[in-house]
Amino acid sequence: MARNFFATSIMWAQELAVVLMAATVWLGLVGASMNGQLFGISLFVDRLPERYAPFARLLANILVLLICAQVIRAAFAQIATARFTTFLTLGWPKWIVAAFLATGMILVMAGLLLNMAEDFRKERP
Predict the structure, then answer these.
(1) Is 124 left (phi over 0), alpha (psi -120 to 50) or beta?
(2) Which 3 state secondary structure label does DSSP give 61?
(3) Which of 15, 16, 46, 74 is the least buried, fewest Cβ under 10 Å from its Cβ?
(4) What pLDDT digit, counting tens, does each position of 89-120 carry?
(5) Are 25 and 19 in contact (CB under 8 A)?
(6) First to last CA, the chain
(7) Bridge partners of 93?
(8) Which of 91, 97, 80, 84 is nearest to 22 (CA)?
(9) Is the pTM of this model over 0.85?
(10) H/E/C letters for each residue in 13-55?
């Protein structure tokens, strides 16, 4: 479509697809996190005896928070090193992809913290 209808190169469509795919994947993680479907953690936690499940869930949540923090750190490092490079045909800065990643991880952390707070309220008598 890009070549025939808009008289642009296929590279333009490919670069736009990369940006949109990054946005879809990284921001889509937020929905998975909010529904408790992140990284398959429930597969392991649900198989534990009931008395160990709250501790395992807390440990898994802490590990996910630490992983998110490291990914955010890496995304900001990538933004710092790629801030002067641009997509060839779009002309957009390439750090946009890393910004979607950082935004997605920040939102995953926020959602996870909200879920943890709600779980804590339910556990308290």
Answers:
(1) beta
(2) helix
(3) 46
(4) 787 888 888 888 999 999 989 988 888 888 78
(5) no
(6) 60
(7) 86
(8) 97
(9) no
(10) HHHHHHHHHHHHHHHHHHHHHHCCCCCCHHHHHCCCCCCCHHH
